[in-house]
Design a protein that fits this description.
The complex is a heterodimer of chains A (about 350) and B (about 375). By secondary structure, chain A is α/β, with parallel strands linked by helices. Chain A is about 30% helix and about 20% strand. Chain A has helices at about 50-60, 80-90, 110-120, 125-140, 145-150, 155-170, 185-205, 215-220, 240-245, 250-255, 300-305, 350-355; strands at about 10-20, 25-35, 40-45, 65-70, 75, 90-95, 175-180, 205-210, 225-230, 230-240, 310-315, 315-320. The two termini of chain A are about 20 Å apart. The model of chain A is unreliable at about 325-355 (pLDDT under 50). Chain B is α/β, with parallel strands linked by helices and about 375 residues long. Chain B folds into 2 domains: about 25-255, P-loop containing nucleotide triphosphate hydrolases (Rossmann fold), CATH 3.40.50; about 275-370, no CATH class. In chain B, about 50% of the residues are buried. The chains are: A alpha/beta (about 350), B alpha/beta (about 375). The interface between A and B is large, with 54 and 57 residues.
Chain lengths: ~350, ~375
Amino acid sequence: MTKPEPILEAVDVKVHIPAAGGRTIRALDGVSLALHPGEIVALVGESGSGKTTMARVFSLIYKATSGEVRYQGQPLQRVSRRRERAYYNDVQLIFQDPFASLNALKKISYILGRAIRIHQVAAGARAVRATVLDLLERVHLTPAESYIDRYPTDMSGGQRQRIAIARSLSMEPRVILADEPTSMLDASIRLSVLNLLDDLRRERGIAVLYITHDIASARYLSDRINVMYGGVIVESGPTEQVVSDPRHPYTELLLSAAPDPARYKGSGRSVQLDITNANPVDNTVEHRGCRFVDRCPKAMEKCADASPELITFGDRQAACWLVGQDTLVTGRSQQPKSSQPSRGSGDPHPSKETSA
Amino acid sequence: MNRASTTIDPGTGPKAAPSTGQIGDPLLEARHLCVDYVTEAGPVRACDDIDLTLHRGEIVGIAGESASGKSTLLAALGRLQRPPAVTSAGQVLFHGRGREPVDLVRLSEAELSPYRWVEISIVMQSAMACLNPVMRLGAQFVDAIRAHDPQASKAEATGQTAELLRMVGIPEHRLSAYPHQLSGGMQQRALIALSLACRPQLVLMDEPTTAVDVVMQRQILGQLMALQAELGFAVAFVTHDLSLLLEISDRIAIMYGGKIVEVGTPEQLYAAPRHPYTQGLRRAFPPLTEPVRRLNGIPGSPPDLTQLPPGCAFAPRCTKRIDVCESTIPPLLEIPGGAAACHLVTPENPAGAWDADDNLSLEALEIEEATSHDQA
């Protein structure tokens, strides 16, 4: 199976923001990332790692200081106003907080209808209303008639987030940038929003960039995971491979720090982590060595002196001196391997197909 | 009231008696506790007939969704709620060492004062909102320590502060820092240290790690667990994150629509939760080590407390409801190893509606995975 061309791509994108005192915040410091049609790509990392900045570069809110963003193979820097408008239709952003992203004083019919009118998806009151009803059904807010005249304040967080998704769907987008779409929602309804995104890519071939700090939900939803740290991608690869066999110490740390029901008290599977420094990296200074060196349990002398390149092996990449190019030796040999170490290798959607 | 004059030394402190997580006698008991929010449209019951006992040295997790009443309950346990929330019925019995239990609900503010911080303290979610932004960190600790122990000199209190901060990994020189000069994680840890300033028997924690990153959360929890084992205080820990509670709690209470619907050990709730809501919650958190399969969470939305259904509050979302669920509220039934409020849970059938198909545990899934290609 050869991969199609990426629909949206970042190539070595840097975003440097001038800050007080003549300092520069290196929000993104050379990130390359590709989204293919029908693919869900997760971007995982802590606050300040640059995840949201990446989404804002893709949605043209921030301009890249250097590097290139390509849509359907075309660099975006050189597009005309008209193409830019088409791009806004095709690439839709969904925000974290559905309480802030919907106008509380307007009915759903207005909120969705306005987007439809502005982007000329439909014209005339009747056609617009029909389109709104269709959108509500697509995000499973049924019967749609009972939702169309409500205000956002009459709806739960999960329902509001569906309205936000419906609004983006009105443009028939090719790409959805979902920036922490479930972190404000209650646990019992998060999955319905994740499943909705999964259905959209399945049924409509929409590419989804799923930004989250929750690696368990990234594992659930995505085909590929990109782990960000301090403005760069430190590891990427097919989701199951990265989760079951992480190569970068930061990915290992993220996985072992995340709560996991299977490690319940008394299970004998609890982890004891000796974390002495959990502070995020200072991205206002230029880093000579690896950004993770101060927190890395496996740091060597070399790590402070020189920054490791992103090394490609198979379908995966990692930026760590412990990842040898030929042998793929990592420092984690003392840890037990996953029960299915080779699971999904060579298959870009290993777990998803079994569940479909 | 003679406790705070001794310098805090977690290793040899006189109060460190019930160490290494030993669970002792009842410490705080809620009996038929009801909390109402007074609104223009009439009272809204946020906590309804809560019975919950916290034991010495025990970590009790309280899980639930927004508006389930979990934070309201926590505030009521410490008599910390403010109008429009009022405790409308029930008791909160505090069992002091060698003393008769006292009903905190009946005490005046002045009578409560000796209990605050010295017996019961609280850690809230937003550290920056709890710490005074215009006071140096050290001064806030000294304030609290001397307010509850007027005999302590300023130098003694400062010494204790340095020790408290050291316990949560904050170096002594940060005593002179203002809260905004600390990172979010450090602020949260400072708040935990502050809650321990007067060596309380019980620490109430309301989503103390929700605002920090997962690695920082793990660091904070690690320190908290170590301190708890050393000092032996009890913890009531409120969060929406059931995965987290499964890892840290001795016992977990699940709240829904203002009521406790299930109580159990982490093992019980992991392997065979009894209430359909808990079963749904277990299916709402994607696994990290278990095999992935399509999960569906819980259909529908959490209930509106102003328009609760006449029967079980969960009935409209419950896939296992029977006729009686829509008309009668199920009582919280004590069963071996916990309690559950579900019509399907009876003394004859304590497992409730749980059946083999529901099993989500690691062992069960490994067997199932080979054969199942379930509904998507």
